[in-house]
Design brief:
Length: about 700
């Protein structure tokens, strides 16, 4: 492996461990680890956007030398370094070792995107953050997992809003030397390059690696000289809008990713596919076994009984379907290696309800995987209905699609100041066992005033960050004053603040709260009990209807009749997601049911004491208990339900949310509101944690799949 010598070479010998920690994303979910960088120089830490690799590259040597002689600093540094080394060294997965032979443990996890940290923009949204939280939780539990994905040199995109409110997409070039990424070197000392099997013309990938705690994440990059220009762009962006380029991406991810693991000598007993994008990895597993002497049927059975497939969306557009002529173009030399002919191969991906549409990656993955799951209980019901035609002889409730409800990585998403409060009042070492619901009952021991003051401090932190971003936009980009005001310069921390942050897809209905504009204005402009709303999110570059909704919301922020109480945060990403889920008062969610597979942003907010106001879809069907937030939309409505759902939101705000928020006791504490905050934390934190999620995958799928190895 390449060490970032150009960055870490100026570290004093006494502080060489800083390089070890910076090179492993373990620091991203351990506040004490981030603090040892921040303590050296707070301004450089801030300017690096909390990225220790970039910080170490920018720091003058004198500051490092000074820290190496600071007794107090060294004491903290020693504690963090020893904890880091101890955790990374510990490889035993007790959960699995108690059940199956540890010698056959090995899970290969494939995903098209990973949301790990804003310094590594390999994510577009919830799917990526779910994958990132999943592998972090696997690291915490020492699950023997190896992850595979793409190195996107140009990431997703930077969002800029024009004067007319239209979203522009700007390429974001990744500075690989200023992030926790290293080159994987071959035996010749050069960066490892792997040829994707049986694809013509020849296609190669360069291999990179990110250490995510104990979990290695291998990333592929096609932007190398050996590839022709058309092939070099395959890994440039997430989710290409060009259908052929999209197919080529998925070939590289599934087949190329499998070959990378093979070249590295990494054994894997289980394949776990996060969505349909990497499903071609199934073919490569089958081909390997056919080459070893098995028939196609024997190989299929072995692969099927050791594969887990997680589907994430009930939205038809979220399932890739490739034209048959493109499949023929790229796989005509591949299917013979499987022992298949043209027709048998293409039938693997046919959707029975629409056999002429093309090769459906979700139908293919469901057909070829022995363990299939949706990502919430409600999503499982919807998914069984969607795909029942693959099992025509089974009643809908017997369709073999289970569910594991998503969860969020608690150490990553809990705000450090709130974590300190929990350290004070919960059981010792509560974080090590945070999926235990009994631990969270101690939330009631936290004094109301302490919890409220902590939340209010986080709210001020959010609004200060928004104002600073608006100032920088004004200073650096010379934008108009209306753009600055739209960015939240007029927000008031004393006002009830609602957060709405997610991808701007039409079914998520970001503009629903504008349905009755006069009623909304009355809520915003109430003299004694006003509300304010912070919107954030990106529309897919090819989604013009989503961009029009975003434009509508953005232009509303500049309407004086809205009293400056609506803001839109441009270029929403992981860093501001942290500020949002920590600092708003209420998290709003109103997708068109049953389109919400799960949703995780509301879980992150609930963990931090921010109550959820949501339609009953996705995870909220399992999370809502009548005391920890608000719900609507349970009734079935024929046709357009926007009016009914919008009125439900207005009624809940007017009759429940606003009165409770502004009810203050004689000692100045919002006790009724804090009661909801506490219930939100203790009912949702353990139930929707990534640790609980990983344990369920192990119990429901991994253990059974390992028995088939």
């Amino acid at each position: 492996m390449e060490i970032k010598k150009n960055i870490f070479r100026k570290l004093p010998p006494r502080l060489e461990g800083l390089g070890e920690i910076a090179a492993n994303l373990w620091w991203s979910w351990h506040p004490a680890a981030r603090m040892i960088f921040k303590m050296i120089d707070r301004q450089t830490w801030k300017e690096s956007r909390h990225n220790p690799v970039k910080m170490l590259s920018d720091l003058p040597s004198e500051l490092l030398e000074s820290a190496a002689e600071d007794t107090d600093y060294l004491r903290r540094y020693n504690v963090v370094l020893s904890k880091f080394r101890k955790e990374i060294k510990e490889k035993e997965c007790r959960i699995l070792n108690d059940i199956v032979d540890p010698e056959i443990h090995s899970i290969a996890y494939f995903s098209a995107e990973y949301g790990l940290h804003h310094s590594i923009p390999f994510y577009a949204g919830g799917l990526g953050f779910l994958a990132g939280d999943f592998i972090k939780a696997c690291s915490d539990l020492s699950v023997p997992l190896t992850a595979v994905g793409f190195m996107y040199p140009e990431g997703y995109f930077l969002q800029r809003i024009r004067e007319d409110g239209w979203q522009e997409n700007i390429d974001q070039i990744l500075d690989r030397d200023a992030s926790s990424i290293i080159r994987v070197l071959g035996d010749d000392g050069q960066q490892l390059t792997v040829k994707v099997p049986l694809i013509e013309p020849p296609l190669y990938v360069a291999v990179w690696k990110i250490d995510v705690g104990r979990v290695p994440l291998y990333l592929m990059d096609t932007d190398i000289e050996i590839n022709d220009p058309w092939n070099r762009t395959i890994s440039a962006h997430l989710y290409s809008g060009d259908i052929e380029q999209r197919l080529r991406q998925e070939i590289v991810l599934g087949i190329g990713g499998s070959e990378v693991l093979e070249t590295l000598g990494i054994k894997r007993s289980i394949l776990h596919l996060n969505e349909g994008h990497p499903a071609f990895a199934l073919l490569e597993r089958i081909r390997d076994q056919v080459q070893a002497g098995k028939t196609y049927e024997e190989a299929l059975q072995q692969v099927k009984t050791t594969t887990v497939f997680t589907t994430h969306t009930p939205v038809p557009a979220g399932h890739d379907v490739f034209p048959f002529h493109l499949m023929e173009k790229y796989f005509n030399s591949y299917w013979p290696a499987l022992g298949l002919d043209h027709d048998r191969f293409l039938k693997l991906g046919i959707h029975p309800n629409d056999p002429n549409a093309g090769f459906n990656m979700t139908a293919f993955a469901l057909r070829m995987s022995g363990y299939c799951n949706a990502v919430s209980k409600r999503h499982a019901e919807v998914t069984r209905q969607m795909w029942q035609s693959l099992w025509p002889d089974l009643p809908q409730d017997k369709v073999p699609i289970d569910y594991v409800t998503n969860g969020v990585h608690v150490p990553k998403w809990i705000e450090p100041r709130l974590e300190l409060l929990f350290n004070k009042y919960l059981y010792p070492n509560w974080l090590d066992d945070h999926d235990n619901p009994f631990i969270w009952e101690m939330i009631d021991e936290i004094p109301d005033d302490e919890l409220w003051k902590t939340h209010y401090w986080l709210k001020i932190k959010l609004i200060d960050a928004i104002r600073e971003r608006s100032r920088q936009r004004w200073t650096n980009n010379q934008v108009s004053a209306s753009i600055v005001l739209a960015g939240g310069a007029l927000l008031d921390p004393s006002v009830l603040t609602i957060g709405f942050a997610r991808r701007f897809a039409t079914y998520k209905r970001a503009d629903l709260i504008f349905y009755d504009i006069e009623r909304l204005k009355r809520l915003l402009n109430d003299r004694w009990r006003p509300i304010q709303i912070i919107f954030a999110g990106k529309a897919h570059p090819a989604d013009d209807p989503g961009k029009r909704i975003l434009q509508k919301v953005f232009n509303a922020t500049r309407d004086p009749a809205m009293a400056g109480r609506i803001a839109f945060l441009e270029n929403y990403g992981e860093q501001f997601a942290q500020y949002m889920v920590h600092g708003v008062d209420v998290w709003l969610n109103n997708p068109l049911p049953p389109m919400e597979a799960c949703g995780t942003s509301g879980m992150k907010a609930a963990l931090n004491g921010v109550p959820h106001l949501s339609i009953l879809d996705g995870w909220w069907c399992e999370g809502f208990n009548g005391k920890n937030g608000w719900a609507f939309g349970l009734e079935e409505i024929e046709g357009n339900r926007n009016q009914s759902d919008a009125e439900a939101i207005y009624n809940i705000l007017e009759n429940e949310v606003i009165p409770k928020y502004y009810k203050v006791s004689a000692d100045g504490i919002r006790r009724d509101w804090v009661r909801i905050m506490k219930e939100s934390i203790k009912s949702n934190a353990p139930k929707f944690s990534a640790i609980r999620m990983v344990r369920e995958y192990i119990k429901k799928f991994y253990v059974n799949a390992l028995k088939n190895v």
